[in-house]
Amino acid sequence: MADEKEIISFPGKAKSKVWERFGFYKDPMTKNIEKSHAVCKECRAEIKYSGNTSNLQYHIDKYHAKKLDSPNQPKQLPIFQSFANQSKLPFNSSRATAITKSIAEYLILEMKPLTTVESQSFKNMFKVTEPRYIVPSRSYFKETLIPSMYKSTKEAVIYDINRANVVSLTTDCWTSHATQAYMTVTAHAISPTWDLTNYVLQTRELPGSHTGELKLLQQFYVKATTPLLALSFP
Q1: Domain BED-type, which positions (predicted)?
Q2: Which distant-in-sequence residues (6+ apart) come within 8 Å of 183 by Cβ?
């Protein structure tokens, strides 16, 4: 009878994992291995074998799929779930710091409202891309990070302008869609390595209409002999 026969594992080195659940009968009388049919170790079903394991895998998937999830073997989780189960990133870790800075740059360069970081869709984006990261509150960006970035950027601009031999200051007056008048002061210089640099030093609201007094104020900025003059304004 088939049950009296011994099932032996695949002889030699098996590459396919199906051989963890399949083997061959060994005749108890002749001791020969019957390789014409593979035998399922779970149900002793005999599957014709000609060197291809596709039909063996089909048998496992159809009849023994539930048994594949062994209680002793942890189930493979999707990558985003695996990250979610890990501990949260420390606030001052290099990874978290880099992400937070990139968010601040996004808010500044794209002129987005600070309430963006409190948007649920914004937070959901990080639940997918980096579930371990906790998005800081808008007060942190407003009161701590962005002022710090402004200070370091201002120091870098002053340093670059001080190294330049000649600085050209220009002004431009414009009116917003809300009919408010503004004047922007820009600085243009060539660095010691002959790189052209351009900086927006300040944009200030100008109450009143564009009169002759405003033109005199523009000339004052243009004729300024030191680039730090514009930077000294609050």
Answers
A1: 13-71
A2: 171, 172, 173, 174, 203, 204, 206, 214, 217, 218
Instruction: Tell me the average pLDDT of the chain.
Output: 80
Q: What is the pLDDT of residue 194?
A: 85
Residue 66 DSSP one-character state: G
Domain count along the chain: 3
Looking at residue 55, its pLDDT comes to 84
| Residue 18 · residue 53 · CB < 8 Å | yes
This prediction has a pTM of 0.52
- From residue 159, how far is each of 163, 167, 170, 222 by CA, in Å? 6, 13, 19, 20
Q: What is the pLDDT of residues 37-54, one digit of tens each?
A: 888 888 888 888 888 888
Average pLDDT over residues 64-77: 55
Decide if 78 contacts 64 (C-beta within 8 A).
no
List the structure tokens of 123.
């937070």
Residue 30 in any domain: the answer is yes
Residue corresponding to tokens 């340093």: 159
Domain, as residue range, for 129: 80-154
